[in-house]
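Long-time lurker, first post.

We've been arguing in lab meeting about whether magnesium ion would sit comfortably in this protein at all. Half the group thinks yes, half thinks no, and nobody has a model to point at. So I'm putting the question to the forum: if I give you the sequence and the SMILES, can you give me back a predicted structure of the complex? Inputs are below. Any interpretation is welcome too.
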Amino acid sequence: MPASMPQPRSVALVGPYGSGKSTLFDALLAAADTPTKRPARPRTMTTALRIGHCSFLGDPWSLLDAPGSVEFAYEAQCAVAAADLVVVVCDPAPERAATVAALLKTLDDQDVPHILFINRIDGFTGRIRDTLGALQAYSRRPLVLRQVPIRDGEAVTGYVDVASERAYRYRPGQASELMQMPASVGEREKEALSGLLEILADHDDALLEKILEDVTPTPAEIFAQLQKDQAAGRIVEVLFGAAERQEGVRRLWKALRHDVPAPDVTAARHGIGTEGAPLAQVFKSQYASQGGKLSLARVWRGPLRDGTSFGAVRIGGIFRTVGGEPAKVAQAASGDLVALARLEGVATAAVLGEADAGADLPFPTPPAPVHALAIATEDRKDDVRLSGALQRLIEEDPSLSIEHQPDTGETLLAGQGEMHLGAAIERLAAVFNVRIVSRRPRVPFRETIRRAVQQHARLKRQTGGHGQFADVKIEIEPLARGEGFVFRDKIVGGAIPRQYIPAVAEAAEAALKSGPFGHVVVDIAVTLVDGTFHSVDSSDMAFKQATRMAMTEGLAKADPVLLEPIDHVSVTVPSEYTPNAQRLLSGRRGRILGYNETPGWPGWDTVEALVPQAELNDFIIELRSQTMGLGTYVRQFDHLAEAHGPLAERVVREATAAH
Ligand SMILES: Nc1nc2c(ncn2[C@@H]2O[C@H](COP(=O)(O)OP(=O)(O)OP(=O)(O)O)[C@@H](O)[C@H]2O)c(=O)[nH]1
Ligand SMILES: [Mg+2]
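Top reply:
Settle the argument with this. Predicted structure of the protein with magnesium ion, as tokens:
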């Protein structure tokens, strides 16, 4: 790329579920230099990052459309890590401002330059200043309103650009046209301008002096200062529009053109200089149904040429997505976001090339799973391909994970919610051609006993020549929770020869795999107290079988009891929802331990509780539905406790019926 060409810059569209990011993404591409037709597809929830390349007024751009649902939040975080600037697309309703709280905090914490785009202005009848006030509560950086709506009745028909003090009327499918400043907005516009200047004056003494002398700076001076402050992350500009009607879209493009920092600036923010060998980072990995792998990467330092090797891997094609279609290119410049083919074994977050000493290329860590399903192949023949397919699925989306539950023998697919797992299962079928069935995971109940018993068992069998003989007397006693299994040998006088004792111990332990209720038995001691043998007919086998018989009968008589796993759960919610969270936990047999302000999250609380695992299956679904989707939790196994009540009775009844 010749030096005179502007560097390609990148913007990620993020924001809450359904705020209009994909509509805006399509509208931005449609308003670019070589317009892409807006796809006439039904609007569906975005579940994976989309990328598009275009130019606007001669500048090259990469756009990322991130999913909004919290269940796909990791994709959005990866997009944030790759972009020069983030556009937070949000709703104008002030009461929905909290839905961008976590996002704004992350952007603030990571010093990522961002702009707010208030979408759906077409249906908004409230006051934009109220929206701004509500959003400001969640932003450490000052929000600077760049536009004031012009209304005809309730409908927004245009806007005043605050910095230039010019009024525009929206025109369907075209750039807005300049109009006379309506008298009705004059006052609000002046107010917005003085608000804007006041914020800018905080960072510029010359501007401050002018304001103190009551001189209004020229629009050019204001624009220059806005650009400086926005690029440095000192302010957050706020624009609005209606993506669906392509209103405010060109205005947003122009703001991006002015205010998105150059990729070299973004690189410098991460400690990466312009001089040196090519450097790139993978921010998303994707398999196609034909088996090919694509790695979306940000080029931190170009040019990155097709065919370049990094260690054992070699780039087998560089692609940009123009007009929705992949277009092969020979190289990619600094700042470009491109798809790289055939980087086998290169994972998301991997850095290609040697990063500068002291460089900092942080990458989001995947969130812990909050929802799980037990999965199995629809057709056993696919079993051999399942683990490979799952491995690739997780490579594509590290916020998914696989756990093997040894107690129940189930394979669990764990992730961020119902939709997330549903999308993963669909992808397994569509891309990896493995169809699976899923169900609620079983709770890994365990069992123990409450009473010590003595049990005698004798195996005596005469079949053909050799017989089988073994006779054991054991004591089974309960141990304290967490003590596991203990075997004691109290044989005296050779009642059973030493050689058979390990077989007894082994069989006693093996019998713990499935107790009277069909679950793993824990916290018991087995003592071998007596027995007899036969010099010819006794064997390891015979002693194992006799022990098994003694264990089965003994455990059943020892007052067995079901144990259920109890997790330590930490629920994090905005503090106005703390009572909801507590109610929800108590309603699920949780024992509330207390709550505290969430460290580093002013306005949020973390409620701690001990909750039976059996109650946590769909917990995230209800938690989200009661907290505007904002609540989340982490869990960790804490202890086993005796299970009481209807659930325990049901499990015991079912187990007894099955036996
Ligand atoms: N009235 C109005 N509706 C809009 C506007 N922009 C988008 N919509 C509608 O809002 C719905 C969601 O739009 P999307 O663009 O899919 O939203 P999204 O943010 O991409 O959603 P997720 O990807 O699921 O987070 C669709 O029905 C759009 O037609 C707008 O400016 N005004
Ligand atoms: Mg979308």
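For your lab meeting: The chain has five domains: 9-261, 271-352, 374-439, 447-558, 562-656. The pocket of guanosine-5'-triphosphate (ligand 1) is lined by residues 17-23, 43, 45-46, 67-69, 119-120, 122-123, 242-244 (CB under 6 Å). Whichever side wins, do check it experimentally.
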